[in-house]
Write a structure and sequence with these properties.
Order of helices and strands: HHHHHHHHHH
Helix content: 55-70%
CATH superfamily of the largest domain: Tetracycline Repressor, domain 2
Structural class: mainly alpha
CATH architecture of the largest domain: Orthogonal Bundle
Number of helices: 10
CATH class of the largest domain: Mainly Alpha
Number of domains: 2
Number of strands: 0
Strand content: under 5%
Largest sheet: none
Length: 200
């Protein structure tokens, strides 16, 4: 039982984040309470405030962690495929399904401290990786073209992830996993996603 565990000072931050992620995944962000999380961690009700100050501070930490996990996964994709953009989108969908609590928090800026320097750095790093997947495209996009590509690719992956997470694609996917289905779609509509039969 979570309420029976005791944590050393160095473990408390991790324990509170883990407990919060579990609550969000099952009951949503509205169910988050520092007092309840302290009970789950088996510490005094004031202990979490030493690490996070308030609920928004805790959700900021979760958002930062989410961006870092997503960035690490997408950066790996850049290194394993010559046409990374569709795979970057697939990694985004995979993240949304495997880390639903983080995904829920990351795109709700009203929940956290949106001006937190560590958060801003994590968001910027994730964006740079997505830009890196677009810049080498066959069309040689630069400037506004890259920014438009970032928005388009992000919108496609994010919209698909939301539909998949909420069960709205269940009938359409059939026996396919959301990840496999997205890869098929991305190869068809994302520039550079479908290999050509011969080099030009």
């Amino acid at each position: 039982m979570p309420g029976q565990r005791r944590y050393h000072h160095g473990d408390l931050r991790r324990a509170v984040i883990d407990a919060a992620v579990e609550v969000i995944a099952t009951d949503g962000t509205v169910a988050i309470s520092l007092r309840d999380l302290a009970r789950r961690a088996g510490v005094s009700h004031a202990a979490p405030a030493h690490h996070f100050k308030d609920k928004a501070g805790l959700l900021t930490a979760i958002a930062i962690e989410g961006y870092e996990i997503l960035a690490d996964s997408m950066r790996e994709a850049l290194n394993i495929t010559p046409m990374p953009l569709p795979e970057l989108g697939a990694r985004y969908v995979e993240f949304a399904t495997e880390y639903p609590a983080h995904f829920e928090v990351m795109y709700r800026p009203e929940l956290y401290h949106r001006d937190d320097p560590e958060l801003l750095a994590a968001k910027q790093w994730t964006r740079r990786i997505l830009r890196a997947g677009i810049s080498p495209s066959p069309r040689g996009q630069h400037g506004d073209g890259v920014e438009s590509g970032v928005i388009a690719a992000w919108s496609l992956a994010h919209g698909f992830a939301i539909l998949a997470r909420t069960g709205n694609l269940d009938e359409d996917l059939g026996n396919s996993s959301p990840l496999d289905a997205f890869r098929r779609i991305a190869r068809r509509i994302i520039p550079g996603g479908e290999p050509t039969d011969s080099a030009e």
